[in-house]
Design a protein that fits this description.
Layout lengths: L1 H15 L3 E2 L12 H6 L9 E8 L4 E7 L3 E4 L5 E15 L4 E5 L3 E4 L5 E18 L10
Parallel strand pairs: 1-2
Antiparallel strand pairs: 2-3, 3-8, 4-8, 5-6, 5-7, 5-8
Length: 143
């Protein structure tokens, strides 16, 4: 009972910080509850997006995140990203200047070092399931 009580308060604490992490290390197999993680994302936020880390096995990371406003041009020096769009529709721009429109059911991806941005949210809510390889570090946002 004591362990359950401590775990409950640990989860509450995690939900109170900006970058939420439910990730556990190491993980060789398992199941991620995407539906509940997505439902826990706030409907509004003053920042461009809010993310929840669900898996970090040292090599690969899985996150869900909701985008509220356009995301400025940036890149990640250490990880490549594969985004499955869970809901919504958006227009992305990449360092080549190429625009891609993507919607629920599409996957958008970029290698490490590629500039990318969300230039327009066409349909809300814009929610992604992201796979990062290797795990994206919090300080790996280069402008």
């Amino acid at each position: 009972m004591k362990k359950l009580f401590i775990r409950f308060f640990a989860v509450i604490f995690l939900f109170s910080i900006s970058q939420i992490s439910l990730a556990q290390l190491p993980v060789s197999f398992g199941k991620l509850n995407l539906k509940d993680a997505i439902a826990s994302l706030p409907k509004m936020n003053e920042k461009p997006f809010k993310s929840i880390s669900l898996l970090d096995n040292g090599e690969t990371g899985v996150r869900v995140f909701r985008v509220y406003n356009p995301v400025p041009k940036h890149h990640h020096a250490y990880s490549s990203t594969y985004l499955t769009i869970y809901s919504g529709r958006a227009r992305f721009r990449f360092d080549s200047g190429k625009l891609i429109e993507a919607a629920a059911g599409d996957m958008v991806f970029w290698e490490r070092g590629i500039d990318h941005e969300v230039v327009e949210i066409i349909e809300h809510p814009l929610i992604f399931i992201a796979i990062d390889a290797p795990v994206r570090r919090d300080d790996d946002v280069q402008k």
